Structures are given as structure tokens and as C-alpha cells.
Amino acid sequence: MLDACLDPEMASEITLQPVRRHGVDAAIFFSDIVVPLKAAGVDVEIKPGVGPVVAQPFEAKADLERLPGPAEGMFDAIAAGVARTVTELGSTPLIGFAGAPFTVASYLIEGGPSRDLPKTKAMMLRDPALFGALLERLGELAAAFLRTQVLAGASAIQLFDSWVGALPARLYAQHVAPHTADVFAAIADVGVPGIHFGVGANHLAPQMADVGCDVLGVDFRVELTDVDQHIRARMPLQGNLDPTVLLTDVATIEAEVRRVLESGRGLRGHIFNLGHGVLPDTDADMVTAAVHAVARYGQPFEEAT
Predict the structure, then answer these.
(1) I want to staple 158 with a disulfide (CB 3.0 to 4.6 A). Which of 36, 100, 131, 195 is the partner?
(2) Taking the model in full, what pTM does it have?
(3) Is residue 54 within 8 Å of 43, Cβ to Cβ?
(4) Chain-centre distance for alpha carbon 90
(5) Residue spans of the chain under pLDDT 50
(6) 266 CB burial (10 A radius; 0-12, 13-18, 19+)
(7) What's the Rg (C-alpha) of the chain?
């Protein structure tokens, strides 16, 4: 997978396929959270059925020397892939993508996916200076990675924090939010909207909304109307159909899509999306059914069916 992400022609083709098949309103550049690590020379691979695995997990200050900062040419393959994709997309916008510093750090520290993140939390508490230095370096890579995509033609960016939901609000605010904010601040001058999304992180919404993003992603565990009213009043939300709905049938999908869209009507703005990724066993035709249900929203039910 990482080879495909760093192959401009392959990454572009994979990005374009959902647009061709499902008719979505925007494309998201095909990538992975650990692509910047791979481009920077870190020994990381994605193992089938497991996910990203780091050969030598980070444990001490000396490990920072194995993680270089952004360098000229580091993301040339990404720039070429984005440029190629934008040309093919025409008027359809492309969303750039990067992993947030905390989630990428968790893979480096744990050595692979971990639900509870024991080593990551331990480093955060035991050696906050080291943990902060690691997130600072990863934030620099993320910002350069996103900037590369925008300069090559991406119309918006999304910063994705897969594992941040494992933290209480206190630790997130103290150890993570400042570094996420640095990423958004570092790319503020590129002039495109920034989306921020975390999985299982609805309890962190007030802090996540304050890191400099323009749109807050909401996962499927909360109703859009239950998001803090101060957030709803000042920024659009993205989300949040439960991905398991796509494992049902067309009628159920249409009903659930309408429910989510109805809940978004009173928002400052709403980007319809899943509340997390497409599950592996999903029938692609059901993804198309959801897209069509969104496109038909507002028509009389009889006409839509």
C-alpha cells in the first residue's frame, strides 16, 4: 500500500476510482497516515490484517535522530500524484490528507496499532519534553505534507487523528492540542479550508474546534445536533453516517441518510460524510446508494424512489 501511495500514477488512479464509480462531490487523495514517515526514511510497513508497523519503536531522545524534518524533494511523488489527479478531476475538488501528530506518534511509540496506547501515554506522562519534541517534529512533517498537496492543486485539507479519542480532555489540551494547532497555523497562509477529525473524540470537540480548523469532523457516536452549540454556531460540521448502515439495504440507507441530513439542516454548514471509514465487507453498490440518497435529498420521497 505504501508503494502505491508513493507512486504518482497509482495514487492518482486509486483516488479517481470512487469519483468515477460513485459520483461523489469531492475526491480525497489516496494516502495513509504513515506516508510522511515512509517518505522521511522511517522503517515502516503496512501489514495485512494489522496495519502500520514500525520496525524499531521510539523510546528515547536518541530515536528522534531517526526522524528527519521536512526536506526538499521529500514529497515530490505526492506533488506529482496530486497534480495528476487534479488535472483528471477537472471541476471536482480534491481534498488533501494527513495524519495528526499524536496519532502518527502513537504508531512510532507503540510499534503498531494499539487501542489503549499504553506506551504512548506513559511517554507523555513520564517524559513530556521528549513527547513534545516528537510531536513537534511530526507536526512539521504533517504541515509540509499538507502544503505540498495544496500547492499541487488540492482545494482543501483534512487532518485525521485516529487514536486521539483514547485521551481525556485534560491530557489532550495539555500535550496534544498545541501541536495540532501548530500544523493548522503553519499552513494558514495557503488559503484553503481545513477539516479536523478524530475517531471516538466527541468528548474533545470543544478543544479540537479551537486548534485552527475551519470544519470539525464528527464521528457516528453522537448526533450532529448534540455537538456543543457554540461549535455549531461558528463552524460547519462534517459527518456522520454510521458506516455499518452501508451493510444493510437501499431502503435503510436512504432513511438513515435522510435522518443525518435532517439533523444537519440547522447547522452553520454541513458536509455529509461517513462517521468513519468504509468497512472492508461493504458492497460498493451500497456506497453508490448512499451517494444517490444525498443527491436526491429534498425531492419528494415518491420521486426519489
Answers:
(1) 195
(2) 0.94
(3) yes
(4) 23
(5) 301-305
(6) exposed
(7) 19
Q: What is the DSSP string of 66-91?
A: GS----TTTTHHHHHHHHHHHHHHTT
Q: What is each CA distance from 112 to 99, 249, 276, in whole angstroms?
A: 15, 35, 20
Instruction: Report d(CA 212, CA 208) in Å as an integer.
Output: 8
Instruction: Kindly write down the DSSP assignment for every residue of 154-214, as one continuous string.
Output: -SEEEEEETTGGGS-HHHIIIIIHHHHHHHHHHTGGG---EEEEETT-GGGHHHHTTSS-S
Amino acid identity for residue 266 in this structure: G
Angle 279-253-26 from CA coordinates, rounded to 5°: 65
Distance CA 78, CA 70 (A): 13
- Which pLDDT score is estimated for 303? 44
What Å distances lie between residue 137 and 37, 140, 200, CA to CA? Answer: 11, 5, 25
CA distance linking residue 108 with residue 105, whole number of Å = 5
pLDDT of residue 115: 85
Q: What's residue 203's pLDDT?
A: 95
Domains of the chain: 2-217 (3.20.20.210)
pLDDT at residue 299, rounded to an integer: 64
